[in-house]
Amino acid sequence: MKEYEVQNIKDTRSGFGDGLTELGKTNKDVVALCADLTGSLKMGDFQKAFPDRFFQVGIGEANMMGLAAGLTIGGKIPFTGTFANFSTGRVYDQIRQSIAYSDKNVKICASHAGLTLGEDGATHQILEDIGMMKMLPGMTVINPCDYNQTKAATIAIADHVGPVYLRFGRPKVPNFTPADQKFEIGKALKLIEGADVSIFATGHLVWKALEAAKVLAQDGISAEVINIHTIKPLDVAAVLASVKKTGCVVTAEEHMMNGGLGDAISQVLVRNNPAPLEMVAVNDTFGESGTPEELMTKYNIDTEDVIKAARKVVGRKK
Amino acid sequence: MTDIKSLEKLTTQVRRDIVRMVHAVNSGHPGGSLGCAEFFVALYGEVLKYNPKKFTIDGKGEDLFFLSNGHISPVWYSVLARSGYFDVAELKTFRKLNSRLQGHPTTHEGLPGIRVASGSLGQGLSVALGAALAKKLNNDDRLVYSLHGDGELQEGQIWEAAMYAAANKVDNIISTVDYNGRQIDGDVEDVLDLGDLDNKWTAFGWDVLHSDGNDMTDVLKTLAKAKEHTGKGKPIMIIMRTEMGHGVDYMMGSHSWHGVAPNDDQLEKALAQNEETLGDY
């Protein structure tokens, strides 16, 4: 089984910040907006290097989305930065009308997504954002798994014409994907080849899925682990090819069960090749204060939950 | 400068277009559209620099106009068509299936002249400001204009944008509020009083001008003055008094024609009060 080496422990938001600064050097049309969270979003380097292309909008996210839509009129490529909660739920109508329906080339970059925001609690721990964003026609939804991939994704979305929702997080997590990777929107990445169960994971759950696969291998279960960094457009061909081989599925995400990756994969399967499926996701509840690891455990989106789900779903195969 | 008489002639024709469009589909918003006819004709007939035959979303080197209160789309569609953006015959598709002239304006069907969707209120000022910032980044010295309803000023996003514009000295924008004092549920002062609108905008750091929106000479004069005020470190707001339903006597004096179409008899009356000057579509 393929093993992944942890190069270092880094936060995905730093991947965004570093990717943005790199983009600033190579693409003069890239501009950035932030709603009073420059430090949290790691946008300080971009702000320092390109002050004329950085817009501090204060605590006014609705205005920020409108400004970003307007900046595209004249050819700019705006990257907005705030927490995932304030990037989506707070400004859904602004994104819907001024960005998505108006087909504006805005990159909505959202940090502190999910439970791993931690101690700030449920007011800030959005678990519905992927669902909201993937329902919007024309919106691309990306949730990379580590620092390197978030950096690569940040750079890649500048070349994609159309609105993008880029979701990442707060905590420092294992950084294991190649530093020199080229990020391909919509292309699922097979991390481990397996035969008995397909584990489709996104974001922070990708590393958990790799850990789970090691344990499952000791049980004699050969798990295929696929990184679904792009939830929309979903790599349907990769999903179907893997499930055709393994015959059952686990989905794993730091998101609500309703509207998330599990939802998206279920739709593909029921319409093409129905197969037993278990979802590792937050089940219709709000989060609470705690450390990221405590919360992942309490809300059943930890390595152990992926393992349990895989054992269960393998047992459901006829 | 275009003579006032010909602009007024166009205004009368635009009013005919508006009532005919909403009558044809028994839906749409005639009140605010009629009240803003002079403003739109002044803008597109005299003030804006634009290229209707080679429309681009970016509009580099052109003045840009954003309609934030998108429900008054009939007046905009009429003026866009009569300014050469598309054939006036297309006005008959308004609000019908497969039309580019959606109930509320949108870029989605590719109608020339429109750069962002509007309808859900309160969003247009932020978008216009973004476009104004892009003009500055591009060293494009043309201006950005926007129009807003007075009821729309009840939306919080307007004031986020107002604060941002002044703090960042966005001085290449001329915004106008259609101060007709009416909204769907009644008079604005009864629904949610805007209070001292002049001092609100002044306190937010805007350069405030006033206009009589149903007097073509005054609209032109105010827009010219506003242009002189650009580039001085402050965004500009024109508080434009209008009469909702202006030009159709039975629609004036109340909020009741905000979003109601005239019936056949009412259409006849409205057309009798606005003679066909440039040919109906």
UniProtKB/TrEMBL annotation, chain A:
A Pfam family: Transketolase_C
Ranges for domain Transketolase-like pyrimidine-binding come to 10-175
UniProt entry keywords in alphabetical sequence:
Thiamine pyrophosphate
- Please give the SMART domains that the UniProt record associates with this protein: Transket_pyr
- What InterPro entries does the record tag this protein with? PDH/Transketolase, THDP-binding, Transketo_C/PFOR_II, Transketolase-like_Pyr-bd, Transketolase_C
Source organism's superkingdom?
Bacteria
Which cofactors? thiamine diphosphate
User: In its keyword annotation, does this UniProt entry include Transcription regulation?
Assistant: no
Family statement? Belongs to the transketolase family.
PANTHER family, A to Z = PYRUVATE DEHYDROGENASE E1 COMPONENT, TRANSKETOLASE-LIKE PYRIMIDINE-BINDING DOMAIN-CONTAINING PROTEIN
Q: What is this protein called?
A: Transketolase family protein
UniProtKB/TrEMBL annotation, chain B:
Reply yes or no: does the keyword Hydrolase apply.
no
* Transketolase N-terminal domain span: 13-269
Enumerate the cofactors the protein uses: thiamine diphosphate
Please provide an example of a Pfam family that matches this protein in its UniProt record.
Transketolase_N
User: Any idea what this protein is called?
Assistant: Transketolase
Q: Does the keyword Lyase apply?
A: no
Q: Which UniProt keywords apply?
A: Thiamine pyrophosphate
User: Superkingdom, according to UniProt?
Assistant: Bacteria
- What does the similarity note say? Belongs to the transketolase family.
